[in-house]
Amino acid sequence: MSGLAARRLGALALGFLIGSWPGAAAAQNAEIALRSGVRTFSPSTSQDFAEQVAAAPTGRHGLVSFRHLLTPLDRRRLTAAGVTILNRLTPTVYRIHAARTAALADTAVTARARFFVPLRPEDRVDPPIWRAEFRRFASRSPFGPTGSNYVLDPDSALRLVVRFESDVSLAQTRTLFQSLAITASPTRAGSWRAIMSRGALIALAANDLVRWIEAGPAPASSDMESVRAALGVAGVQTFDVGTGAVTGLSGQGVQVGVFDTTGFHGGHPDFTLGGGTGSRVLANVATVGSHSTFVAGVIAGNGYQSALVDNWGVANGGTPHQWHGIAPLADLLGAQWLRDPGAVNTVTLRDHIATHKLDLSNHSYWITTDGEYGDINRLHDGLIRGDDGGDGSPIPARLHVHSAGNFAKQPLSGNQRGFFSLGSQLKNALLVGNYFVAADRIATSSSLGPTHDGRIKPDVVAPGTYVTSAGYCVKNADTSDDAVLDPPYYPAPGSPETQPCRNSPTGVRSGFYWVQTGTSVASGAVTGVLALVLQELVAAGTDLDLTPPFPSLLRGIAIHSARDLKSDLPWFVTTDGTTGSLPVQAFEGPDFVSGFGLADAAVAVDVVRTGAYRQDVIDATCQVRSYTMKLSAGPLDPVKLTLAWDDPASDVPELSLTQPRLINDLDLVVIDPLGAKHYPWLLDQQITDDTGAPLADDAQTCGTPVTVVRRLNPTPDPYYAGADGTGADLPGSVDDPIAPADLQPAGRGKDHLNNVEQVVTAGIPGTWTIQVSGFLVDQAPQPFALVGLLPGNLVPFLPFKFCQRFPFICEMRFLALCVRYPILCKRPHFIPIRPGVLALSFRDRLDVNVIELAALCAALDVPLPCGGSRAATGPTTVLELGPFPVPLRPTLFDERGRVVPGDLTAGRWRWRLPAGPDALFLFISPEREIRPGASYPVPVGFSRVP
Asked: What is the DSSP letter of 40?
């Protein structure tokens, strides 16, 4: 008899036994109401389940109806028979897993179970999703854009949340997603956000590992919490919502300028020192506006008024301090926009720096909508770099953070929409796009790059959709008075969210909160993040007034620390007004949709905390600055270096808009320990000589001319196209409509358009050489910032490699941390080490530092076998740790998750390292609340004993 026949015979026997049990006939109609419909328990469903269990390699999940409430003894007997209880649905119906070898016909099971029911695919899916009734997921929120759907994308991809059975491993989950070409990422709740086709959904639902599939999260989360979470702010800051007290980084001691059409309402309680008293507003202008007040709240509001009432006596309806901003203790300075070259506002900028110590400024307004790099762009680039402000006197260099604009769908002039729809053409500013957190994509309104001369913009993106922040308005005034600057896509016209003073009993309404969407919001969020970075620079010894960082350093840190966004399918389609549908998609590396990715506060602060940056100067064409870094533990993946410089303003208004505006051209080359050269991301560039012949990277010689040929060009320039009234293009226009095939992922090579370059490559142990050279330095000297240059005294920890190499201990000891801090599993983490001292930092009490002993020994140059090659005979290696400056809990594990015993004497931990090949790992976590991001020195050493 075959094995299959035997299993079927056993299943039939089980069905007979169950059907012949006393009382079985009375239980024939036992039912349970599921979302998919009523399921009836019967001998036939039990037989079906038994057959499925016998045929499955690892058994099956299902439902069982028991005769009585289960006791602990019942559970033990069932487990011994191969039936594992997972959870209870009703008092007597449970979800279970039956192993392939389960003895379902054994009396230990039949004495307790009436009937089994197998699970069908539709039992695992929310019924509207299963029936493809997606219209119900169109946004009903008063804040949502018309026609948006948070489940069904325009390209028919589905955005869903997937939960797995509790006994499913991380490796099984990832293998299943990969086999079905599903893009997924874990959530803090233990589920997965996934993007899949309809076919993949059906296949996924049929898999026994899946517990439940439902719609992705609805978008109407109108507060700052989603903004802070997406930016990783919790990794460097703890905010006490009860008292408003902040531990970790808060922006304290950093002065931020808010440049807008008007000043902001400095009397909003969110801008107080705390407790509704005092003020953090150092300077402002008399005219007050709603837009600037909102942006100031995103940057530095403390949320004081969230749970209180406004000046009309209307309850704000939030929880205490709910709508606090990113840097809630930063000082603020209000100023009017810098759209007029040489205007009095340029003098205001100088005064704010000289008198009020301004360190950074936000500019949520557009300065061009026609693609022209004109006087206003030239003015801003010069101001950022620290050049002449238009009156013969230089202004100290400070970074400007600019909104990218909301013109992708609704241009302000001409036909500049979709790609090439940026609100500025700046080189030296940090340009920020709008990331829609709930939809996990760029907002459809957010302006897309590149600049008209082909540069990568926006630089980064940040959350800016459906955000709640500080409000101010005047009775019956048009609260979108400054919408022409950076038009926010408000809710429906006339709603309280767009016109909160429409039916006001008094003239001015203040002390309230409202919702806005747009790149104005996103740029404010990134400005807040950089205020935290500046505070960390102060802690590292930088004097922001005497030796402020180069603007390019802050821009470089923001770009370097951004999380690369990548979508396997287009998020949606757009049009440039000339061609048909153009796919909007984020590729690996930089792209013209999301720039270099989603801003991340925790990673940006880590750059400063680990000292992974340099500021230097190139003095002439062909000059080379070389740096080295040693990677002693591998494989390290990836190595990432970012070069940024503040380029002189371009003053060639007569030049075609598509010609490069780069003045000083620097090059970044990274050479690995084997001598291979690695070049930066190269997006939409082919380099040729003056005859049109392509030039290889090594053939591009400094000081010689090169030509950049691009695939992607702007649509007709609105200043010229049809200017004679006939609709025909006049001389000087550019007419090369974009085609979908033009939108390609970045390659690699020497870049001759951008003043930011980034190399990303797989790491190998050994000494790396990083070269920054002047390909063409027309206006010397040229300061630059290099980010990612690791000091030699770092212990690396690479979660993604760790989980690949040691899946058992990863799932046992580390997976929960990955769910809490997803970014921790996506990027390298480096722990600074001084001679004999580890510098540990933690996000909160639940955080943990993981240190592989092999990496620690390599960083300390310990000539002892301590990381997986310990001899069974001879002297024993001893690890000593402590004493600790704060209560910490260290545990040493081997790669199979077993605890290596240690002893604590006089505040110092000691472990005798066991013999054998297993890798060893230190897990160190706080025993009580600590200051997020603070550095705690912990002595560490190795010795040998007989």
From this structure: E
User: pLDDT tens digits, residue range 723-762?
Assistant: 344 444 434 344 467 888 889 999 999 999 999 999 999 8
Q: Cα separation of 476 and 453, whole Å? A: 43
Q: Residue count of the chain, please give it.
A: 946
Between 13 and 623, the higher pLDDT residue: 623
DSSP string, 318-348: --TTTT--SSTT-EEEEEE---STT-HHHHH
H/E stretch holding 293 reads helix 290-300
What value does the CA radius of gyration of the chain take, rounded to a whole number of Å? 31
Contact yes or no for 627/644 (Cβ under 8 A): no
CATH topology of domain 614-787: Jelly Rolls (2.60.120)
Phi, psi torsion values for 7, nearest 5 degrees: -65, -40
- Cβ–Cβ contacts within 10 Å for residue 939, how many? 14
The whole-number pLDDT of residue 494 equals 35
The answer to whether the beta carbons of residues 403 and 523 sit under 8 Å apart is: yes
Residues paired with residue 434 on neighbouring β-strands, in sequence order:
462
Residue 96 DSSP SS3? strand
Q: What is the pLDDT of residue 698?
A: 93
Residues facing 152 on adjacent strands? 158
**Confidence band for 147, pLDDT divided at 50, 70 and 90:** very low
Crossing angle for the helix pair 375-385 and 344-356, to the nearest 10 degrees = 10
**Residue (of 856, 760, 780, 730) closest to 623 by Cα position:** 780
Domain limits of the chain? 3-119, 127-215, 250-561, 614-787, 794-945
The answer to whether 12 and 43 are in contact (CB under 8 A) is no
What kind of fold does domain 250-561 have according to CATH? Rossmann fold (3.40.50)
Question: Measured at the alpha carbon of residue 38, what is the angle toward residues 32 and 42, in degrees to the nearest 5?
Answer: 65
**Please, what is the average pLDDT of the chain?**
82
AA letter at 138 = A
What DSSP state is assigned to residue 409?
S
Strands (E), 10-156: 31-34, 37-40, 60-66, 83-88, 93-98, 113-118
- Residues 6 or more apart whose CB falls under 8 angstroms from that of 524 comprise 295, 296, 298, 299, 325, 326, 362, 364
The two tokens of residue 751 are 């870049």
Give the CATH class of 794-945: mainly beta
Q: How far apart are CA 404 and CA 434, in angstroms?
A: 8
Q: What is the CATH number of domain 127-215?
A: 3.30.70.80
H/E stretch holding 22 reads none
Q: Work out the angle at residue 549's Cα, subtended by the Cα atoms of residues 748 and 266, and round it to the nearest 5 degrees.
A: 115
Q: Which is nearest to 324 in space by CA: 434, 220, 242?
A: 242
Q: Is the pLDDT of residue 482 over 80?
A: no
State the chain's maximal CA–CA distance in angstroms: 101
Tokens encoding 707 = 């030509």
Between 238 and 717, the more confident residue is 238
User: Is there a common fold for 127-215 and 250-561?
Assistant: no
Pairwise CA distance, residues 145 & 371, whole Å: 27
Residues 6+ apart with CB under 8 A from 106: 81
270 pLDDT more than 80: yes
Element (H, E) at 86: strand 83-88
C-alpha 109/C-alpha 408 separation (Å) is: 63
- 372-391 residues labelled b (16+ CB within 10 A) or e (exposed): bbebbbbbbbbbbbbbebbe
Task: Between 793 and 575, name the one with better pLDDT.
Answer: 575
Instruction: Give the confidence band of 890 by pLDDT, cuts at 50, 70, 90.
Output: very high
Share of the chain above pLDDT 70, in %: 82
- In the chain, the percentage of residues whose pLDDT exceeds 90 is 43
